[in-house]
Design goal:
The complex is a heterotrimer of chains A (546), B (304) and C (313).
Chain A: E1 10-21, E2 30-38, E3 42-46, H1 53-61, E4 69-78, E5 81-82, H2 88-97, E6 99-102, H3 116-127, H4 132-145, H5 151-156, H6 164-176, E7 182-186, H7 194-211, E8 214-219, H8 222-228, E9 231-236, E10 239-245, H9 246-251, H10 256-263, E11 280-291, E12 303-314, E13 318-322, H11 329-336, E14 344-349, E15 352-353, H12 360-366, E16 367-370, H13 384-394, H14 399-412, H15 429-441, E17 447-451, H16 459-476, E18 479-484, H17 487-493, E19 496-501, E20 504-510, H18 511-516, H19 521-529, E21 535-536, E22 541-542
Parallel strand pairs in A: 3-8, 3-9, 6-7, 7-8, 13-18, 13-19, 16-17, 17-18
Antiparallel strand pairs in A: 1-2, 1-4, 4-5, 9-10, 11-12, 11-14, 14-15, 19-20, 21-22
Chain B: H1 28-35, H2 39-57, H3 93-128, H4 130-145, H5 148-159, H6 163-171, H7 175-189, H8 193-200, H9 205-241, H10 253-260, H11 269-296
Helix pairs in contact in B: 1-11, 2-3, 2-11, 3-4, 3-6, 3-7, 3-9, 3-11, 4-7, 5-6, 6-9, 7-9, 9-10, 9-11, 10-11
Chain C: H1 2-29, H2 34-39, H3 45-55, H4 61-73, H5 87-122, H6 127-139, H7 144-158, H8 174-208, H9 211-218, H10 223-261, H11 266-275, H12 279-307
Classes of the chains: A alpha/beta (546), B mainly alpha (304), C mainly alpha (313).
Subcellular location (chain C): Cell membrane
Family (chain C): Belongs to the binding-protein-dependent transport system permease family.
Membrane topology (chain C): Multi-pass membrane protein
Chain lengths: 546, 304, 313
């Protein structure tokens, strides 16, 4: 890695940084931030949503939204030059040439109406007085360096013609083509699948080593942190909690908040044993779903979102379906509750095939669904009581009785019944997800489908909601179909696991078998790509099982 | 507040007090507050209130009979007897302006009621019931392709000039625009997780429309309704001006301008007085629409 | 692309069919007997019956509709009930003035509105922006004929720079043609300037909040470079849409403006026809305008793909 011995040069030094709202609010958004980044070093800024980590990185880039946020104190030294005080012209010179940035959303970070080659070329046009031939050669070289295939074609492509991973490579090429001293990466892999994430992380490391670039990597994901960080800066609610070397923070954090944060990261070691004796609540047999029009010129243009899928969920069992985006896992889940109509196969709930029934009302009494986004799954115009009672009232229960049951269930998920009259916007994401879970549970379903139900939550909240699932399963013996892309979450909660790839089940079995001794190459790739497979975050030590 | 929870003592206690008073944009209170928050909005509101008051209180505002012809007093200038002078039939211009507000406001309100109600009906029909979409939207496309003014002129000319005909003629071309907007909102909302969640809870079609779909069209409808109100007043004046509006003897701003055309070079104020009233009314209502739009949904700005 | 144009042309057929049906129904189902209107109140019942028969009004409604549609498809738009001239001739005679007025108005509107909108977006919230926005609300709150008369009063009557009213075709010389078009075109362009400037402003502001604008800033581009190089291109599609809508709306404004400035165009033709209850002319002109509207929409759709590579047909 980096050569620490030969007196490393400080590239970025943030001193007593304070960022405030314009006009100033009660408390600065970010305050008293101090850290340094050396040549060739990777510093990770870690924190949950609202910690101020992204604001800090935007401040370094001089890109705080004008008129709403401003640096009101402290210094940001880039190679000794305080960029909070330089002129606008000097700041523009420094951008891309001195400090470059890679953003979270590769889907929206590129101008959709311009060819990607021209977008990279623009950086050179702005900062170098080269001929167009020189520039073109330089761009093509850079495209090669970020390992894109067929660079001539890529140069001429528009962003929408490229995959997410390819676009992120373009953004990285754009950021690094001028060999900046400092690279700021704000959650650059969060929107990507794990296998792509691994490649992008490797690419950043590779280019960093060639140029001895200093890297500031903003992320919420401790898995990623443990893979790439030399040092870690932990932030919470606008304040710096703790800084230290990667090892120190992961194995012996000094601060309580850091301890809580690190120990909330689920480990990859399966915790739950198989459940085999109880009756089958859900039996999916040969389920297929195809999209696409038949006929009209182009035949054979069908998409098999799910193809011959088989699995079961028993009473008291949590079965996970894991897979990357496009694997068809959500399609399967939606077919089970008939939000989507399956094309073929049978879905047996308590032994009754619901795949083609017209009595959907009966199906939905037995099966309930929890959605990924807690901010959009509750009607913002209805009170919590109205949302919770809706299902019961639909099935003919009197209002008073429904209200009592709703209150009871709300307490079951850990919220006081006193909040029944409030509206969703008065709750945090984690609390909303609890309400959504209560709304499903109040129906007393036999089967609960959780579609990425914890994916949008911060890691500490995620841990609490996972605990809640575990508790509910123990108390009610409900069967749960748990859809997730996150192997760690699956390891935490699932008894058995189904791995899907391109609409097909490639491997299924107990959680222990699938995660510890994967048979199918795709499962093996997924597990290998999961960041930090060898670290047991909950116990602050390397995991012995792997 | 701190009811002990069965499952999890670990709910971060500090989260709960935070829930108390988060203001939400889009609530009735917040909207009203915003409407009164800028000068432009306040002035517009005052102007609209004044015009409504003028319409309601016209007989008590020192007016004379607006249709009383006095051939001996034709085309007089301003005087104490006639604040704004008289027109070519010797009628009192000030009184006609005051009474004209009634017609304009009635046309505005009537158009809004007709076009919004029918627009909601067709919008829900096409947005939620896919089978209706193909037929109804083709019809709506056809209706939208016909220039509204021409359709209105033709309707009035053929069916005869009455207030009802004018209302229908102005409202009909607006229906497809309302229907399209309602349809677009419903198409957007019906894939929202909370609507799918309601489906999973066994919510039936009508309950779904009433509880989850219609409420989200309210804010955009309020804004669009305001704009329709303004544009209806404008269209009425154009129709009357072209001679295809409400009966010529009725004191309306459009009719006054139509009659003033002949004497325009001689006495331009005969057109300008009612013209200023139309402009002022339309302007104020449009400004209110802008404030409502900015407050209720910034994204709607795109649709104008 | 070819396939797309074909599909789009085909999809225009049902819309135009609907237009024809609506126009037909409006004219035939409205209270009021066309025969009475044409023959006048003093006609005897025998005369009326004969007239109805001659006009085909005694046939079932559906038959009348299809007879009429058949005639249109064969290019026969009938003859004016008033003058007896073929409708096609009447329309051709009046097409030139309307076309000139519309084109000049549109050019003025686009040339003025786009810079105004961009400047307002750039200066968002500042004085200039407020002025442009206030002007734009004013622009479509004042009836076109008021603007027209005011301009006549100031520029023709008081200053005497332009003739008060009238129209001369281009064949009478460009100067004569142009000087008579200035006032009508300028006054008609007001609401469209307002409309287009607003849409430009809103969309440029919206685009300026996109992630790729942040990327462009991170490259070290100036705000001006960001605006010209990245924001305008991305705001192009809604701007083209609103220009298309404006063309469609122009048709309504033309009727009024031609009436104010005494221009012998299609707007005046349709007004004369309405006042004389000349059904065949009304039908045909409405159908013509609707067809133009549908084809403008088609052109707008095709233009999208020029500005946005994601839209491919």
């Amino acid at each position: 890695m980096t050569d620490i011995a030969s007196a490393p040069k400080v590239v970025l030094s943030v001193e007593e940084l304070r960022v405030d709202l314009v006009p100033a609010g009660e408390k600065p958004i970010v305050r008293n931030i101090n850290f340094q980044v050396m040549e060739g070093e990777t510093v990770c800024i870690v924190g949950e949503s609202g910690s101020g980590k992204s604001v800090t990185s935007m401040a370094v880039m001089g890109l705080l939204p004008k008129g709403s946020l401003a640096v009101t104190g402290g210094r940001i030294l880039l190679d000794g030059e305080d960029i909070t005080r330089v002129s606008a012209t000097r700041m523009r010179e420094l951008r891309a040439a001195g400090v470059a940035m890679v953003f979270q959303e590769p889907m929206t970070a590129l101008n959709p109406v311009q060819r990607v080659g021209e977008q990279i070329d623009e950086v050179l046009r702005l900062h170098r007085k080269w001929s167009s031939a020189e520039r073109k050669k330089s761009v093509l070289d850079m495209l090669e360096r970020v390992h894109l295939p067929d660079v001539q074609r890529i140069y001429r492509s528009y962003p929408h013609q490229l995959s997410g991973g390819q676009r992120q490579r373009i953004v990285i090429a754009m950021a690094l083509i001028l060999r900046p001293r400092l690279l700021l990466a704000d959650e650059p892999t969060t929107a990507l699948d794990v296998t792509t994430q691994k490649q992008i992380l490797r690419l950043i490391r590779e280019l960093q080593d060639e140029e001895r670039t200093a890297v500031v990597f903003v992320t919420h994901d401790f898995g990623v942190v443990s893979e790439i960080a030399d040092r870690i800066v932990v932030m919470n609610r606008g304040e710096l909690v703790e800084t230290g070397s990667c090892d120190k923070i992961l194995s012996d954090p000094a601060d309580d908040y850091t301890r809580m944060l690190v120990s909330s990261v689920p480990s990859l070691i399966p915790r739950c044993g198989p459940i085999e004796k109880t009756p089958k609540v859900l039996d999916v047999v040969g389920l297929s779903k195809t999209y696409g029009k038949k006929g009209f010129g182009k035949s054979g243009n069908l998409v098999h979102a799910a193809n011959g899928v088989n699995f079961t969920v028993r009473k008291g069992e949590i079965t996970g379906i894991i897979g990357e985006s496009g694997s068809g896992k959500s399609t399967v889940a939606r077919c089970v509750i008939r939000l989507t109509d399956p094309s073929e196969g049978a879905v047996l709930v308590n032994g009754n095939d619901i795949a083609s029934t017209n009595n959907l009302k009966a199906v939905r009494k037995k099966v309930q669904y929890i959605f990924q986004d807690p901010y959009r799954s509750l009607n913002p115009r209805r009170t919590i009581a109205q949302s919770l009672m809706e299902g019961l009232v639909n099935y003919g229960m009197a209002d008073a009785e429904a209200y009592a049951k709703a209150a009871e269930t709300l307490e079951l998920v850990g919220l006081p019944a006193g909040v029944m009259g409030r509206y969703p916007h008065q709750f945090s994401g984690g609390q909303r997800q609890r309400i959504a879970i209560a709304r499903a549970l109040v129906m007393k379903p036999d089967l609960l489908i959780a579609d990425e139900a914890v994916s949008a939550l911060d890691v500490s909240v995620q841990a609490q909601v996972l605990d809640l699932f575990e508790t509910i399963r123990k108390r009610t013996g409900i069967a749960v179909l748990f859809i997730t892309h996150d192997l760690r979450v699956a390891a935490q909660i699932c008894n058995s696991i189904v791995v899907m790839q391109r609409g097909q089940v490639v491997e299924a079995g107990t959680a222990a078998d699938v995660l510890s001794a994967p048979q199918h190459p795709y499962t093996q790739t997924l597990i290998a790509a999961a960041p930090a497979p060898g670290w047991d975050f909950q116990n602050f030590r390397p995991s012995r099982a792997v | 507040m701190t009811t002990p929870t069965l499952t999890e003592p670990s709910v971060p206690a500090q989260d709960l007090p935070e829930m108390t008073t988060v203001p939400e944009t889009g609530t009735v209170k917040a909207t009203l507050r915003a409407v009164f928050s800028t000068w432009a909005a306040r002035i517009s509101l005052i102007v609209v209130v004044l015009i409504v008051a003028m319409a309601l209180l016209a007989p008590w505002l020192g007016t004379q009979d607006p249709v009383q012809i006095a051939p001996g007093e034709r085309l007089q200038g301003s005087s104490l007897a006639h604040f704004l002078g008289t027109d070519s039939y010797g009628r009192d211009v000030y009184s006609r302006v005051a009474y004209g507000a009634r017609i304009s406001l009635a046309v505005g309100a009537g158009t809004v009621v007709i076009s919004v109600l029918l627009g909601i009906f067709f919008g829900v029909l096409t947005g939620y019931f896919r089978w209706a979409d193909l037929i109804v939207m083709r019809f709506m496309d056809g209706l939208m392709a016909i220039p509204g003014i021409l359709l209105a002129i033709a309707l009035v000319a053929i069916s005869g000039a009455t207030l009802t005909t004018v209302l229908i003629a102005i409202a009909v071309p607006e229906i497809p625009r309302v229907a399209r907007m309602v349809r677009a909102v419903i198409l957007g909302v019906r894939t929202e997780p909370y609507v799918e969640a309601a489906t999973c809870l066994g919510t039936g079609i009508w309950a779904m429309v009433w509880r989850h779909l219609l409420p989200s069209t309210l804010a955009p409808l309020l804004v669009q309704g305001t704009y329709i109100f303004a544009s209806a007043i404008m269209t009425e004046s154009i129709l009357s001006f072209l001679g295809a509006g409400i009966p010529p003897e009725t004191p309306s701003w459009g009719n006054m301008m139509a009659e003033g055309r002949v004497y325009f070079l001689l006495k331009p104020e005969l057109i300008l007085y009612p013209g200023v009233m139309v402009s002022l009314t339309v302007l104020s209502v449009n400004m209110l629409g802008d404030v409502l739009r900015d407050q209720l949904d910034p994204r709607m700005a795109k649709r104008l | 692309m070819g396939v797309f144009i074909l599909k789009r042309l085909l999809s225009a057929v049902p819309v135009l069919f609907m237009v024809a049906v609506i126009v037909f129904l409006v004219l035939r189902l409205s209270p009021g007997d066309p025969a009475v209107m044409i023959a006048g109140p003093n006609a005897t019942p025998d005369q009326l019956a004969a007239l109805r028969d001659a006009m085909g009004l005694n046939e079932p409604l559906l038959t009348q509709l299809f007879v009429w549609l058949g005639q249109i498809l064969s290019g026969d738009f009938g003859v004016s009930l008033v003058s007896g001239q073929p409708v096609t001739h009447l329309i051709m005679d009046r097409f030139g003035p309307t076309l000139s007025l519309s084109i000049v108005t549109l050019i003025i509107a686009v040339v003025v509105a786009i810079p105004l909108g961009v400047v307002a977006a750039w200066q968002q919230g500042k004085l200039l922006d407020r002025l442009v926005m206030a002007g734009s609300v004013l622009g479509f709150s004042v009836p076109v004929f008021i603007i027209g008369y005011t301009m006549i009063l100031i520029f023709a009557r008081i200053l005497g720079w332009f003739p008060v009213q009238g129209y001369k075709p281009l064949s009478d010389g460009f100067g004569e043609f142009a000087i008579r078009l200035v006032l009508p075109a300028v006054s008609l362009s007001f609401p469209y300037i307002a409309l287009i400037a607003r849409i430009v402003r809103t969309n440029v502001i919206e685009v300026m909040n996109e992630d790729y604008i942040r990327t462009a800033r991170a490259k070290g581009l100036t705000e001006r470079g960001v605006l010209m190089g990245h924001a305008l291109g991305n705001a192009a599609v809604p701007i083209i849409t609103i220009i298309g809508v404006s063309i469609a709306m122009l048709i309504g404004g033309v009727v009024v403006t031609e009436s104010v400035f005494n221009i012998p165009g299609l707007g005046r033709l349709v007004l004369e026809a309405v006042l004389a209850r000349d059904y065949t002319v009304i039908q045909s002109v409405i159908l013509l305008f609707s067809t133009i509207y549908v084809f403008i929409n088609l052109v707008v759709d095709l233009l999208y793909s020029l500005f946005d590579p994601r839209i491919r047909y």
